[in-house]
Prior knowledge:
Elements: H1 12-34, H2 41-45, H3 50-81, H4 87-99, H5 102-113, H6 120-127, H7 135-160, H8 164-171, H9 176-187, H10 189-204, H11 208-213, H12 224-234, H13 236-266
Helix pairs in contact: 3-7, 3-10, 4-7, 5-7, 7-10, 8-9, 10-13, 12-13
Amino acid sequence: MRRTARDPRIPVPLLVPATVGVAFLVLPLVGLLVRAPWSSLGEQLSAPGVGEALRLSLVSATVATLLSLVLGVPLAWVLARSRIRGRSVLRALVTVPLVLPPVVGGVALFLVFGRQGIVGSWLDDAFGITIPFTTTAVVLSQTFVAMPFLVVSVEGALRAADARFEDVAATLGADRWTTFRRVTLPLVAPGVAAGAVLCWARALGEFGATITFAGNFPGTTQTMPLAVYLALQREPEAAIVLSLVLLAVSLGTLLLLRDRWLGRAAG
Length: 267
C-alpha cells in the first residue's frame, strides 16, 4: 500500500494559537531589546557593582555546577541502573526542586543550614561556621535548585544508553566501578555535558532561594538576578542592561545545546 505524502500545511486551528504563543513568548524579549539604552550600554556595564555581581554569578554558578556533577551523576546512576527499593519515591524527592517555589527552597535551606538549623547549629557549635548570608549560601542555593536538571538529563541518557556494552565489560572481568568509569561514563558524556550546561544556566539565573537564604549584599551574595531586582527599583535602564546580559547568556546556552536537541529531533 502506497503511503501518501504528508501535507506540510499547518491547520488553521493550530496555526492561530501557535502564532499567539510565539508572540507571547517573543514579544517581551523584543521589548527588552527595543527599550535597551544602547547608547549608554558601556557606561551601564562599567557602573560600580555590575562587575562584582557578574563575577560572583559566574563563579558561584560554576562552583554549583561542579558540586552538582560530583553529587548528581552518581545519583542519576542510582536512579537509572540500581534496583534499590523506593526508587520512584527517591526520584520524586530529587525532582521536587524543579516544581518547588524557590523561596520555599530558601526557607528549607535556612531550616537545615541556619544557625539554629539541623546541620547549621552543629557547624556553628563545633567549628564556628555560619553559612547563611555568605557566598557559600549562594552556592548552596544554586545547587539546590539546579542539580535536579543535571540529574534528570543524566538519568535520561543512562536509560537510553545501550547496556550491552556494560554487560560485555562485566563478562571480561571489569568490576562495577571500572565499568562505570571506562564504559558507562563515556557513553553518556553528551548527556552529562547537556545537563551541566542546563544546571549552570539555571544556577546563574537563580533568585528566590538566594535572596531568602543568602541575602542581597553587594560583593558577597548579590548575584546578577538580585542586581537586576535592585536596579529595577532605582534605575530601570540599568535593570534592562543587566537583563540583556542574562538574556545573552541564556541564548548562548541554547546554542550550546542546539546540536544535541535539534540533531536528535531531525533524526
